[in-house]
Amino acid sequence: MMTIVTALALLPLAPAFAESPEEKGLAIAVEDDRRDNGFGDYVADMVMTLKNKQGESSTRHIRSHNLEVENDGDKSLVVFDRPRDVKGTALLNFSHKTGVDDQWLFLPALKRVKRISSANKSGSFMGSEFAYEDVTSQEVEKYTYKWLRDETLEGMDSFVIERIPAYEHSGYSRQEVWIDKKEYRLLKIDYYDRKQSLLKTLVYSGYNQYLDRFWYPDRMYMENHQTGKNTLLEWSDYKFGNGYTDRDFDKNSLKRAR
Question: Following CA atoms 110, 113, 119, 123 in sequence, which dihedral angle do they give, to the nearest 10 degrees?
Answer without folding.
Answer: 50
